[in-house]
Design a protein that fits this description.
single chain, alpha/beta, three-stranded antiparallel β-sheet, 8 helices, 10 strands, 17% strand
């Protein structure tokens, strides 16, 4: 596991974007796994800048997103501020700014009528493309990856997951409060890649910023491997792992280099 510590969010975001860009340049038809939330926005902005100013070419890149709320999906007729789907988030924050082909984009279908069948299909699509080369990840306040809530099996696959009270609260504050959506009207279930699915990624790229995540970062990277902190499964990854933190997020690590 390689841990990189940067002074601030901007430098952290650029370092993550550089790793992704290097992969695209070496393997133009690579498969990238993307995450949502506030943390990767800076990385996506830097990738969009690279496309515009440095001709970073996404035309052959394939993408798979980690998760999506069950019951909602991207509807282009809706304005961004009233559509909290993760598909909409990705479109606004990255996809519309680069030359990624629509047919190469994979985001879980929150509007599917057959979620179990869709989850099986999503797994098979990842395998059909040869697996994910780099998976971008953050970490939840309780240590979850994607929507793999505490208690999720570390061998879990893509599935429907009930959301915990903590996740609902966090997501309400991040995405729903500004749209004046009541908490009880938020989606309470999601489709998510499983921990087992994520661990099959060739290169895990976890990015975390902020002092509020310092404790859970230390627990995930240095603590016991446990389903109570699903991101602790990062310690089980058999391949390449890169963790990029800003200084506040790294402040409770005991053995990191470069602090």
């Amino acid at each position: 596991m390689r841990i990189i510590i940067k002074d601030d969010y901007e430098k952290m975001s650029k370092a993550a974007a550089d790793i992704i860009a290097d992969m695209i340049r070496v393997k133009p038809d690579c498969v990238l796994g993307f995450a949502t939330g506030s943390t990767p926005i800076g990385t996506y902005k830097e990738l969009a800048r690279m496309h515009k100013e440095e001709n970073l070419d996404f035309s052959d890149v394939k993408t798979f997103n980690l998760d999506e709320y069950l019951g909602i999906g991207m509807e282009m007729s809706k304005p961004y501020e009233t559509d909290q789907s993760y598909a909409r988030f990705m479109y606004e924050e990255l996809f519309k700014h680069i030359n990624l082909k629509k047919e190469n984009i994979h985001v879980p279908d929150g509007l599917t009528k057959e979620p179990e069948n869709f989850c099986s299909w999503y797994e098979s699509e990842i395998k059909r493309y040869g697996g994910i080369d780099i998976q971008v990840l953050g970490i939840g306040g309780d240590g979850h990856w994607a929507f793999n809530e505490p208690g999720s099996s570390l061998a879990s696959r893509t599935r429907v997951q009930a959301l915990t009270k903590q996740t609902l609260e966090d997501n309400f504050n991040s995405f729903y409060r500004k749209a004046k959506v009541k908490k009880e009207d938020m989606p309470h279930f999601a489709i998510t890649m499983g921990i087992g699915t994520i661990l099959e990624t060739k290169h895990v790229l976890m990015i975390v910023n902020g002092i509020n995540k310092a404790g859970i970062v230390a627990e995930a990277l240095e603590g016991c491997i446990t389903s109570k902190v699903t991101a602790s499964a990062i310690q089980l990854h058999p391949g390449k792992v890169t963790v990029i933190l800003d200084k506040p997020a790294s402040s409770k690590l005991t053995w990191s280099i470069g602090k």
